Amino acid sequence: SEKYPLVVSTWPFLDAVRAAWRAVDGGSSAVEAVVEGCSACEELMCDGTVGPGGSPDENGETTIDAMVMDGSTMEVGAVAAMRYVKDGIRAANLVMRHTKHTMLVGEKASEFAISMGLPGPTNLSSPESVEKWSKWKTNGCLPNFRKNVVPQNGCGPYHPKDFLLTAELEEGTCPGGDMLGSLSSISSHVDVKNHDTISMAVIDQMGKIAVGTSTNGATFKIPGRVGDGPIAGSSAYADTEVGACGATGDGDIMMRFLPCYQVVESMRLGMEPELAAMDAISRIARKYPDFVGAIFAVNKEGVHAGACHGWTFQYSIRTSAMKDVEVFKVFP
Ligand code: SD4
């Protein structure tokens, strides 16, 4: 048919889309193509925010969030804050195909992935991530993601403000001193360059739909932080009867709204992809006017659209009507 196969992805991750296209055009299932596409991005370390070598946490470590969803069976596999294994999407796929669970986390996710044959343990740091982190350490470790805290000295440990005020009363000293004033003004500042998850949707030759995501998250996140990447309905969602959605941006905010679930459900009720995408984004923006994020929506007819807030967004598409990947720009 002319409507599918089809591959959509956040950002101009051209080689990832090409890898997924080769798979699906050659007869692979939507799930297989999503895995090939996201895996290509992990290997290329797309933008430094997919695969290893990006987004060091406060301890300097890179961890990985990834998810795959089969929109025909509604099965999901996900890994969250996975350490020492770089193949996020393949690990997620192993969870989906070889367990009855939906998500594994942290070091246990790594152990599972390695036991199922993925390479590891591997150091996920790169010279770039180490340098970024050392600079941050040298410059006083101003946290990106903490609020209402004071560092005990310089780089932490950080304590809740109230905790310290109590300690001050008890001991008659004032730990933290004037850092209290300066730190409280740094809320959850997010660097726009931090945010380039791959979120991909594929419609295969049978018309079946799958989605996948992979990211190393957010720079200087608190160790243990899990973003929207592995959360079905947030970073991506698929239903073969309706269509699919993929998201990118400030996952800490977006995962409070399940925007991709919202998009697919709106399309199920008859909304066009463009309106569904805009509605999902504006629900978030109404509560968080400063949030940065974007989504693409595609229905089962292959009609697609994007919406964004706080930045200009681009998504990539490949269909049989195109000679190569085409990139669409979306403005807030
Ligand atoms: C996260 N959503 O972990 C991811 C980052 C991202 O585009 O999307 N970047 O918050």
Explain the overall architecture.
It is a single chain. The chain has helices at residues 14-25, 30-44, 88-98, 106-115, 127-138, 161-171, 179-184, 251-254, 259-268, 273-287; strands spanning 6-10, 64-70, 75-82, 103-105, 149-151, 158-160, 198-203, 209-215, 236-239, 243-249, 293-299, 304-309, 313-319, 326-330. It has 10 helices and 14 strands. It starts with 5 loop residues before the first strand and ends with a strand. The protein is globular and about 60 Å long. By secondary structure, the protein is of the alpha+beta class. Residues 169-191 have low confidence and may be disordered. The strands form 3 sheets. The chain has an 8-stranded mixed sheet. The protein has a 4-stranded antiparallel sheet with strand order 9-10-11-12, covered by helices on one side. The chain has a two-stranded antiparallel ribbon with strand order 5-6. Bound molecules: N-hydroxy-L-asparagine. Residues 49, 65, 195-197, 215, 217-218, 227-229, 248-251 line the site of N-hydroxy-L-asparagine.
